[in-house]
Each structure stands twice: as C-alpha cells, then as structure tokens.
Amino acid sequence: MTTIEIYTTPTCPYCHAAKQLLRKKGASFDEIDVSRDSNLRLVMTKRAGGSRTVPQIFIKGTHVGGCDDLYALDHAGGLDPILQP
C-alpha cells in the first residue's frame, strides 16, 4: 500500500477537495489535523520546506505540495503512477 500523509484542518475547503480526489482514486491516507497542535504544524512546515498552508500532502515520503499541486499532478497524468504500490 502507498503511504500518503495529508496535513489538514477541519474547515479547510482545499483539504476537503484534496481528500476527495484521493478517495476518488481509491487511495487511503493518514490525515493529520494541525488545527489544535502547534508542534504538528511546525513539523508540517519543516517537512514542506517552509510552506505553512494546508493541506500539505506527502506520497511515499515525497512532498507533493498542496491541493492545487495534487490536482495539477493528476491532470498531467502523474498521480496514478505514484499511487501504485
């Protein structure tokens, strides 16, 4: 199974859109809510190369980016291959 981590907050529409795309692809993911934990947000920011916005998405340990990046990757045909185990 492909490891997918997505850092989110509950009210973020971009987080919901990213999760919707991943679910549509049949991909399971670990969701990490950073809304109430500043330490988790700091970990996310460091892993994401300084990006502080949510979502931040990692597939197989590689930073994909945010929601727009995920959709762009899908439109370019690059998402399905990296979701394969």
Total number of strands: 4
CATH topology: Glutaredoxin
CATH homolog superfamily: Glutaredoxin
> Which CATH top level class fits?
Alpha Beta
Radius of gyration: 12 Å
Biggest sheet details: 4 strands, mixed
What is the number of domains? 1
Tell me the series of helices and strands, N- to C-terminal.
EHEHEEHH
Structural class: alpha+beta
What's the architecture in CATH terms? Answer: 3-Layer(aba) Sandwich
Mean pLDDT over the residues: 96
Percent helix among the residues? 40-55%
How would you sum up the global shape? globular
Strand content: 15-25%
Terminal Cα span: 5 Å
How many separate helices? 4
For the biggest β-sheet, the strand order reads 2-1-3-4
Poorly predicted tracts of residues: none
Please characterize this protein's 3D structure.
- This protein has one domain (4-83): Glutaredoxin (3-Layer(aba) Sandwich), CATH 3.40.30.
- It is globular and about 35 Å long.
- It has 85 residues and is of the alpha+beta class.
- The protein has four helices and four strands; from the N terminus they run E-H-E-H-E-E-H-H.
- Strands 2-1-3-4 form a four-stranded mixed sheet, sandwiched between helices.
- Helix 1 packs parallel to helix 3 (67-75).
- The mean pLDDT is 96.
- The protein has helices at residues 13-24, 38-47, 67-75, 79-83; strands at residues 4-8, 30-33, 56-59, 62-65.
- Helix 1 links the parallel strand 1 (4-8) and strand 2.
